[in-house]
C-alpha cells in the first residue's frame, strides 16, 4: 500500500486526477480502460480536474468504460439525489465519454439481486476493472459496505446504518428519514479485484478511518483495511486526515513518497 500525503484537498485532487489521466493514456488502445468511480463530496475535485484535462485535449474518455460504486434503492435516475443524476451532473455531461460506456446500478430494478449479478458479470466480461477510484466514510466503509460487511463481498443489496443516513442527510434537507434505507453497492472484493485501487481521504473527520486502514489490523469492522492486502493500492490523503497516524507512520510515507508531493 502507498499513502500519498498532500498538503490539502486541492493538491490531493490534482495528484489523483493526474494519476488517473496518466493511467488512461498508457492503456493499450486495442481494449478499453475500465474505470470504477464513486460519488459523494470526496471525488468532486478530481472530477473537476479531469473535466479540465479533457477540455484541454490532455485526455479523452472515448475508450473508457465506467462502473459506478453504488446507487440508492428506490430513487429514479431523474431524482436529484440519485447517483445517476449526480454522476451526469458533475462529470459525465462534461466529458467526451460515449453514453453506452457508462454503467450505473439500477436502484429501480424489479429484481435487485439479478441487477447486481448482471453488474458483476459485465465487469468480468470486460476483463475486470483497471483502476477503481473510491472514498471512505468516517467509519472506514468503502462504497456502501458498512462496518462488518464481509471482505469477500460482491455487488449486492445493502442496508444502510443510521449513522450513514445521518451523514448523507445533508443532501436530503438534513432529514435522515428522507435518505433511502437500502442501496445497491459493489462489494469489497469487487473493488479489491481491480488491478489498481485509488482511495481519497481528506479532512479531520476521516482521520480515524485513515489510521485504521493503514495501521490497524485487517478487519471487516473497517472495510478500508482490505486495501492492506492489495498489491497495487494507493491512498491519497491530505495533511488534515493524518491527525490520528503515529508519528513514525506519517514520517515513513512522507519520506518514501516525497517525490509525489505537488
Biggest β-sheet description: 7 strands, parallel
Instruction: Examine the coordinates and then state which fold CATH places here, giving the name of the CATH topology.
Output: Rossmann fold
Specify Rg, calculated over alpha carbons.
17 Å
Number of strands: 10
The DSSP helix count reads 8
| Run of helices and strands | EHEHEEHEHEEHEHEHEH
Which CATH-level-2 architecture?
Answer: 3-Layer(aba) Sandwich
Distance between the termini: 20 Å
Quaternary structure type: single chain
Query: Mean pLDDT, as a whole number?
Result: 96
Helical fraction = 25-40%
Low-confidence stretches: none
- Tell me the count of domains: 1
> What is the overall silhouette?
globular
Secondary-structure-derived class: alpha/beta
Query: Strands of the biggest beta sheet: in what spatial order?
Result: 1-10-9-6-2-3-5
Keywords:
about 260 residues; three-stranded antiparallel β-sheet; globular; 8 helices; about 15% strand; alpha/beta; seven-stranded parallel β-sheet; single chain; 10 strands; Rossmann fold
